[in-house]
Amino acid sequence: MYNAPKPNIKDLPTKAKLHRSSIIAGIGAVFIGVCVYLPAEYGTDPTGVGNILGLTEMGEIKQQLAAEAAANEALHGGNESSSLMNDVFGLFVGAAHAQEAWQDEITFTLAPGESTEIKATMEEGATMTYAWSATGGRMNFDLHAHAGGEDVTYERGRGQTSGEGSFETPFAGDHGWFWRNRDDANITVTLQLSGAYSEIVRSE
Amino acid sequence: MLPNRSFRSGPQSHPLRQSLTIFTTVVLMLMAFATSAYAHDVTPGDAGYIQEIFGVHIISFIYLGAKHMMTGYDHILFLLGVVFFLYHMKDVAIYVSLFAIGHSVTMLLGVWFGWGINAYIIDAIIGLSVIYKALDNLGTFQKWFGFQPNTKAATLIFGLFHGTGLASKILEYEIAEDGLLANLLAFNVGVEVGQLLALFVILIVMGYWRRSPNFMRQASVANIIMVGLGVLLTYQQIAGYIAST
């Protein structure tokens, strides 16, 4: 009837053994859930173990990607199913934007560990549209401004090869990017800008 | 195919109702599967993360390997089939090792040499492995063909197919060349860790179940359900393949 005999009750683990194993499994599941799963999926690390294991970074990147995907969807209303799709979609959008007239195109190269700041001098309530892409490696950036005791962060990213979007200034001053190459090869970034700004300021 | 259980003596709690309950559960599971379309689809989160990083990340890849195994229900289903009637830990260790050797070999080689085997075809074969093992458990091969194919060899061979399936999924992850070998080995370790964690839970549940006097009777229903799930997995992949060509 079967490819196996009926189990002999003597061969089976006792109820006590099974109960003990169940408790171990339960404790293990809670431990893995709190110390491994939460950090690795959500970047939440109540015990600090995730950080030691290096899994919290994974969770943070995943959350960042999820937020980006949500933002993308809110922006374009599409139903992109994967980050790859987003990238492809982003390329098309980037290309579409590029066909508009950009006021400035800035190209710069950073060696590993190097950083630079590129900002645009803008009035309060002014709008900037931008697109950038990196070749040779992946870039970290912080799109922000601080002037007269005020500061704002528009977007932060790491390990990215392209980006596009726009922002409206809440106060007058220099608004723009801090770029840093955390990769291990030279990276060349092409940044395209258009909007209401009076000049572009670069600082190393 | 159904074992002739009506000749069993002793009090029986309406086997029909029991079967119906199980059947309903299965139908609900099928519906759940139908919405998720693919067997162990890579979530955008994991793939997205992997495509952001480069260099050696041992623990991250162990985690991802374990997660991949524990959420890949086709692998878990086959594993359940393999240990279903193994009552001794020694046998469990032998069979699970054979499965692990099988899938590790093709997973590592497959990724390293970039074997681009169609994911639908390989996943359909993995579905067939579930059907095979469930039929094997039911003693169907002895009944139909009068002989018993070597169960250890079958576990190893199907392990090779499961590994090829894993490889094709890992290739889709697009792991950076930088640190590939170390990360791949870590992923493989993770797959085995995930398998052992899943096995631990399976053995506890089976342990309680086997102590039940109804085990042998329910076992036939369970394995028939497993055949059904295998058919569903195979069907989904074949349908997917046809749709993709």
How would you explain this protein's 3D organization?
- The complex is a heterodimer of chains A (204) and B (245).
- Chain A is α+β, with helices and mostly antiparallel strands.
- Chain A has 2 domains: 1-79, no CATH class; 102-203, GOLD domain (Jelly Rolls, Sandwich).
- In chain A, 35% of the residues lie in helices and 36% in strands.
- Chain B has helices spanning 15-36, 44-52, 58-71, 73-83, 89-112, 119-137, 140-145, 151-173, 180-211, 215-244.
- The two termini of chain B are 36 Å apart.
- The A-B interface holds A 1-4, 6-9, 11-13, 15, 17-18, 21-22, 25, 28, 32, 36, 40-41, 53-55, 57-58, 61-62, 65-66, 69, 81-84, 138, 158-160, 183 and B 3-4, 44-49, 51-54, 57, 59-60, 63, 67, 84-85, 87-88, 136-139, 141-142, 148, 151, 197, 200-201, 203-204, 207-208, 210-211, 215-216, 219-220.
Radius of gyration of chain A: 25 Å
Number of strands of chain B: 0
Number of domains of chain B: 1
Helix proportion range of chain B? over 70%
Number of helices in the DSSP assignment of chain A: 4
Order of helices and strands of chain A: HHHHEEEEEEEEE
CATH architectural grouping of the largest domain in chain A: Sandwich
Q: Count up the domains of chain A.
A: 2
What amount of the residues of chain A lies in strands?
Answer: 35-45%
CATH topology name of the largest domain in chain A, in short, is: Jelly Rolls
CATH superfamily of the largest domain in chain A: GOLD domain
Nutshell version of this structure?
The complex is a heterodimer of chains A (204) and B (245). With 204 residues, chain A is an alpha+beta fold.
How are the elements arranged and paired?
The complex is a heterodimer of chains A (204) and B (245).
Chain A: H1 15-42, H2 49-53, H3 55-76, H4 83-99, E1 104-110, E2 115-122, E3 127-135, E4 139-147, E5 150-160, E6 162-168, E7 173-181, E8 187-195, E9 199-203
Helix pairs in contact in A: 1-3
Chain B: H1 15-36, H2 44-52, H3 58-71, H4 73-83, H5 89-112, H6 119-137, H7 140-145, H8 151-173, H9 180-211, H10 215-244
Helix pairs in contact in B: 1-10, 3-9, 4-6, 4-9, 5-8, 5-9, 6-8, 6-10
